[in-house]
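Fold this complex.
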Amino acid sequence: MSATHVPHPDLPPPSSTIGALGWLRRNLFSSPLNVALTVLAVYLLAISLPPMLRWALFDATWSGDSREACTANSGACWIFIKVHFGQFMYGFYPEAQRWRVDAVVLLLIIGAAPLFISSVSNPLKVRLGLGLLLLYPLLAFMLLHGGLFGLTPVDTRQWGGLLLTLVIAGVGMTAALPLGVLLALGRRSKMPAIQTLCVTFIEFWRGVPLITVLFMSSVMLPLFLPTGMNFDKLLRALIGVTLFQAAYMAEVVRGGLQAIPKGQVEAAAALGLGYWKTMALIVLPQALKLVIPGIVNTFIALFKDTSLVLIIGLFDLMNIVHSATTNPAWLGFSTEGYVFAAAVYWLFCFSMSHYSQSLEKRLHTGHKR
Amino acid sequence: MADRAEQQITLPAKPPFWNDPKTRAIAFQVIALVLTVGFGLYIFDNTQTNLRRLGIASGFDFLGSPSGFDIIQTLIPYSASSSYGQVFWVALLNTLLVALLGVILATLLGFVIGVARLSKNWLIAKLALLYIEIFRNIPLLLQIFFWYFAVLRAMPAPRQSLSLGDAIFLNIRGLYLPAPEFKTGFGWVLAALAVALGLIFAIARWARRRQMATGQPFPMLATALALLLGLPLLAFVLAGAPLHWQLPELRGFNFQGGWVVIPEMASLLLALTVYTAAFIAEIVRAGIQAVSHGQTEASFSLGLNTGLTLRLIILPQALRVIIPPLTNQYLNLTKNSSLAAAIGYPDLVATFAGTTLNQTGQAIECIAITMAVYLSISLLISLLMNIYNRRMALVER
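Structure:
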């Protein structure tokens, strides 16, 4: 009679390595150094978080519509934001006409929504996107500026707040990308004259700070134009911002162009495609896909840089918040104002960067290592 | 065979000259050049007309005339009767000062946060991530304004200053620090420092040669630290402690003595450091992650310890990835320091492209000089960067 060996059933893992306890041991208390770091971090959070929360939430004033309502509480006075909210969003846009701004935003959302729905076919998306790119700016300008179809004209000097920030960022993005692509192609061109021109242009704009570019567009541009001709202040800022960002965009796109193997161009030539067809159908689609993170980073940088138009006296979100904090009737609420503005900027930049990450994941076709 | 020879070989017709790539290339370039030069001439002509109409004399003669305004922070002697040329140097030095300090502080903070981001400690890693995501997504100008208007301008008056050990004071006028006063005999300390540096250099050479010959390592770091601290300290004690700290003192309505960091400088430096450090942290993280784990394992299997692995294997490879974007951030920081104009820190843009331009009306000259300065800094740094890149680039097969 031989006994069959019956293995003892596996022991469960030690209780200290699984569940919440295991997680804590692994992630917070794995070594003496980590214990010290955790204690330090918890201590820092314990002294900094409660006062911040008390200021922003528990001791803050939320209801009321005058400055006096805030005197009772020691925390933030969010009434300051509530009272100025319209101004922060629309600037000095006449209150009776603000529906036009809303309409412009709504139109963009309706127009762009199909681009984000996966059941819409790709060729339709391309056609819709191109149509949007060409028609929407015209429509938006007509609605915002007025003067046609019985709409009261609203001068660009009255545009402000988040509206102006979005206008500058939107125009800058849509103009800088194609310009940047052209500059990048020019920089990679085999024609020495074109290459030199593009390199000079790119290196010049990349070498100077945006603030000097804006200074230049506000004090020097009028000198460059023939007598009697003058540009709107907003247009001058737009030109400066676009040229500046196009140079950065060109360098990003160049990175993508350099990453495309030569065989792609040679194969396109063997198929009988000319330069523009090779670029538009073969090289650029691959190159642009590669540099999506870079492009979005440039967009984010552009969005943040729009705050610099404050220097030349345009009332974008940053400037309008700043001037509201210096309003004699509402002195002493600069922290609330800046925190609000920071939250708005942060929301836009953060969602852009997250969208780019998801786009990168969706478009990646398995070539990534 | 015969009928094949009879076949006429017809060469394809030569393409018309406008389809010849070479002709086209020349034509495109000529067109581009003509357009550029024409545009340039057009602008030049317009500018000439406008300047004549406005009665502005162009040229750089204004640099010699007295400026007539004061500057709140000057690193070189300057008064209101100094020339605009001196304004330029004062402003340039102020820009370089804030850029240099910003680069040093942002690098330190950025490396700490970048390493913290990779920490095995969950809480530390998340806090670092939170820091990065918050500060790089908020415009720098907003951060400068926040530190300046909401924090430093809200500081108490000099009499109610916040103080740290009666030596450092913070109030609405700025940050007051004790200033060192060097007495006679401090030269000995400096001399000792120089001797220590020379000795370290010599010992390092000897130690390296010995290691090459015999394989015996030498505790270089400990020796270097001991020399670097010990010798000057010895000289300091022997020379009778020739250093005295001058503390800032409240006299009347303001503090006297000591060093003062004006609030404009403090807020600009703070914002530049905090903002750029968020970007540097991401660069450091990417650089460290770019070195594959196999390198560490291979190094361990060769018998190198953790410190040596880090110094000889990981860091050289990580730095190759880190340094180019890092220089880019330094360049960005230098260019971003021009935002000083918004809060009135007397840098190049605020004082030279701002005040000087407004007083003299020499728009083109002022902006051209300002842009030329930033452009030369950029080009210089990218030149150095290219040289470095060529030296560090991977040499493959």
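The CA atoms of residues 293 and 314 of chain B lie 9 Å apart.
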